[in-house]
Design goal:
Elements (H helix, E strand, L loop, with lengths): L6 H11 L2 H8 L3 H12 L12 E11 L6 E11 L1 H18 L16 E7 L10 H4 L5 H18 L5 E6 L26 H22 L2 E6 L8 H12 L6 E3 L7 E5 L2 E5 L10 H8 L1 H6 L2 E6 L6 E4 L4 E4 L8 H6 L7 E7 L3 E8 L5
């Protein structure tokens, strides 16, 4: 078996022999293989370091040069993959430790009863906390400070305008956070994102803002249901947002938090059923049948059904044989990717009022210019 050389040995051989081809001959390596190895070393994508957790060895690839029956090994590398069991255990341990330190909200007296016939649904999607947008390039300025102040101002205005009701839903339908970890990358594709802050600060601001919104809502409504839906930008963060606020408000019976891990959600209000999905797994077309299948009992009991999605940042509405499916705008400013791609849309969010017997009976739309 051919010797497997370290990065340092290869680099020193190139220096010692005065060139890559001479170094390859001295090390009994294929010249092209050594050049690729040097390129990987220079770009920082090759390492001889031990496998870092939570990674696990999934296989070894070997490049052979066949000059005989056995073949001479000229290059060999290890393949790793995420250790899902260890990642799950780490997340569970971190979550358990976090919950021990979360101060529980105490139960507070409910406001006077108004009417249990109505339900106000505050719809927020694709808010992208942590996005950095520069107006000369995108048409909008956007950063964490703007996002926090605008969301609180939007809720203050819409709470004052919404009709009297006993119950509400804070329906945050995904991509609340622009990035999902210490690096500003999309979780699935690894695309670089324009970020204005560090992830630790982003987490603090997001928690602070959501908590203030929940307290604003429970000051007006007797019951508050909180939905922190999964989005494609915040796959992991949507998990800790749900679990964190479920833990914090577990002693407050007037606040319920949706902890369903499947990214399709439902709320039943009398003869009215309301469904949500961010839109990253299923687009608006055919989404009605997905909800009817996943929530067969609720769909069968109700007469008026509505589905809500986001993801594409512009408004679209389809009425099918099963329900009305609506795709929502966002309040957030556009990012450079959308602006350069020519994907433009208006900015607004809505409060939709549903009646137990008649379905949707009203809505309030508030744009950033109105705040």
């Amino acid at each position: 078996m051919a010797k497997r050389y370290t990065d340092e040995e290869i680099t020193e051989a190139v220096k010692l022999h005065g060139g890559k081809d001479k170094a390859a001959r001295a090390l009994n390596m294929d010249s092209r293989g050594l050049r690729r190895r040097i390129k990987r070393i220079n770009h920082g994508i090759y390492t001889d370091s031990p496998i870092e957790t939570p990674q696990m060895l999934s296989g070894v690839s070997t490049l052979r040069k066949f000059e005989d029956d056995q073949g001479t090994i000229v290059l060999q590398w290890e393949k790793t993959s995420k250790d899902t069991q260890q990642m799950s255990a780490m997340l569970s341990a971190a979550t358990a430790a976090l919950f021990e330190k979360i101060p529980r909200a105490t139960a507070t007296p409910a406001p006077p009863q108004q009417t249990d016939k109505l339900l106000n649904v505050y719809t927020i999607t694709d808010y992208h906390f942590g996005l950095l947008s520069w107006a000369p390039e995108t048409g909008d300025d956007w950063d964490t400070n703007i996002a926090e102040s605008m969301l609180l101002a939007w809720f203050e205005r819409t709470i004052s305008l919404a009709p009297a009701a006993d119950s509400c839903v804070f329906a945050q339908i995904g991509d609340f956070l622009h990035f999902d970890g210490l690096e500003a990358l999309t979780p699935s594709s690894g695309h670089p994102l324009d970020a204005d802050t560090r992830f630790c600060r982003l987490v603090r601001v997001a928690i602070r803002t959501v908590d203030r919104v929940i307290n604003m809502l429970r000051a007006k409504y007797r019951t508050v249901h909180v939905l922190m839906a999964e989005g494609n930008h915040d796959l992991a963060s949507s998990v800790w947002l749900r679990e964190l606020f479920a833990a914090k408000y577990e002693m407050e019976p007037r606040v319920t938090v949706e902890t369903r891990p499947d990214p399709y959600y439902c709320y039943e209000h009398g003869l009215t059923s309301i469904f949500w999905h961010h839109g990253h797994k299923h687009r608006i077309g055919g989404l009605d049948t997905v909800f009817a299948a996943k929530f067969r009992d609720v769909f069968g009991r109700t007469k008026h059904s509505y589905a809500h999605t986001g993801h594409l940042h512009h408004r679209d509405l389809k009425e099918t044989n099963l329900m009305i499916v609506e795709q929502h705008r966002t309040l957030a400013g556009a990012d450079a990717y959308a602006a350069r791609g020519g994907w433009m849309s208006g900015r607004s969010s809505t409060v939709i009022t549903y009646h137990k017997e008649y379905g949707e009976v009203g809505r309030i739309t508030v744009s950033p210019e109105m705040l």
